[in-house]
Amino acid sequence: MNALLPRPSILSIEPYVGGESKIPGVNRIIKLSSNEGAFGPPPMAQEAIIASAREAHRYPDGGATKIREAIGAKFGLDPARIVCGNGSDELIAYLILAYGGEGTELIMPAHGFVMYDLTGRYAGCRVIKVPEKNLLADVDAMLAAVGPRTKLVCLVNPNNPTGALLPQSEVKRLRAGLRDDILLILDSAYAEYVTDPDYDPGQALVDASGNTVMTRTFSKIFGLGGLRLGWAYMPPQVADVLARIRGPFNVNATAMAAGIAALAEPGWIERSVAHNTEWRAKTVAGLQAAGIKVWPSACNFILADFEDVAKAKAADAALRARGIIVRGVGGYSLPTCLRITIGTAEECQMVIEGLTEFMKNV
Ligand SMILES: *Cc1c(COP(=O)(O)O)cnc(C)c1O
């Protein structure tokens, strides 16, 4: 009998494991494992979701015209160069499948976002993970890893799961050092949270080059992860490629309606950023006071480092006993760390209390 088998590279992929959401026997769960935004969906987006129910029999606008116009107006971008996806994960997959494939290489930092590794292998690329310096992407090492088969370089900035922000000058130096036939994917899923005045999520680099794409998402600050809505800003020739390969109705009507409403919610980004900046600092200070190392973060999560694998596991268990789910990042080869989303003020306080108590007892 001949066994049915996929392409060999497929079987090297470990299925993606998302942040957990349940603890057996615990009723009230504090879920701080997927960076979903502290405030939930904006009220106007919730209204739009309900209103969209009446039109659920209609196919969505395959051109995603209104949502692209709303994104363009909000961020000052040409809607013709915006493509929407069923989450930015879908756009990332399209880009890697379109430009990568068997016989090509994809370069990413060692602790970069896992989807680039998984999708790179799916496409058949050889995925090269370049060691960082102090958990910060090492541009010289990434450039040194480039070979004749390199087609894709993927940089998440600020990065998940480390929270690290690479200075703008380094991002520019990376693009400038890459050949023109290499696509640079700048994943700016956490862009809205960044308060560094020098930061550019990628718009300037996309405009300045024909081979850079910026990806963004409604899953983090806009609290719409459950609806799957992402977008990317890109040169016209890349938009043309995605227009050829994407599903004709890849973004659903409810997601688009909610996205438009979320962008229109007055003060949403400002309030979310102010809360995040305040409670990230308080959580960092609380954990440090308890004796825990915390890596610098520009995102809506922090990476707490217990500097010992068993201790990190015990801290995870101690939080779970209090109904708090954070994210173990052993799968990112950071087994001494836990990634903790910045939730509401109350949730952050519960994390600080739980870990302070834990550190007293270890
Ligand atoms: C959360 C996240 C995404 C977003 O994904 P969606 O598919 O839009 O939900 C993309 N990149 C990074 C680095 C993320 O952390």
TrEMBL record:
Pfam short name (any one) = Aminotran_1_2
- Establish whether keyword Transferase is in the entry: yes
Q: Which cofactor does it need?
A: pyridoxal 5'-phosphate
Describe the reaction catalysed, as an equation: L-histidinol phosphate + 2-oxoglutarate = 3-(imidazol-4-yl)-2-oxopropyl phosphate + L-glutamate
Name the PANTHER family for this protein. HISTIDINOL-PHOSPHATE AMINOTRANSFERASE (PTHR43643:SF3), HISTIDINOL-PHOSPHATE AMINOTRANSFERASE 2 (PTHR43643)
Q: Which family does it belong to?
A: Belongs to the class-II pyridoxal-phosphate-dependent aminotransferase family. Histidinol-phosphate aminotransferase subfamily.
Binding partners and assembly: Homodimer.
Protein name, per record: Histidinol-phosphate aminotransferase
